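Now for one specimen:
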Amino acid sequence: MSDTIEVIEAKEKADDKDFFKERVKTMPLLIEWASPEIRNDKEIILTAVKVDGGALEFASDKLKDDKDVLLSAVNQAAWVCCYASERLKADKDVMYTAVKKDGQALYFASEELRDDEDIVKAAIENKPIILKYASLRLRQNKEIVKIALLNAGKEKETVISFLPTELQNNEEFSNL
């Protein structure tokens, strides 16, 4: 019930910067009910995403294209890179931070970064099945394949299914 009261209050105070400056410290998703001007306030959005990266969803497009905001958000919750601007989905620092925390974030990376060895290695170290979203070139890279298979555990067969046919039956990988 108190959450409902908070939302009603947030809607009533949509233009009240001081209200949101304080409330996002403990209820960051209330930013959804803020005015466009407040959703474009870097200080308020940074405060919100440091508590709950999911608050990035409600930030202005301008702030979804702000590297500082994105790095803060993905440090809190890597998956929120899905809200990043296309420019930042192609930014190596942002995406490396995201995939290092959760390899699943590779799904949201630009095509160029899906072909970047550092990015893909970081992603598959903690989420081997994300190899599926690496470029074909890197799915053919034996070093990358070894990393994925060594970390795959019970998902080894699934990881193997994402390899090019010529590598799927490679004896070099059968003992990993």
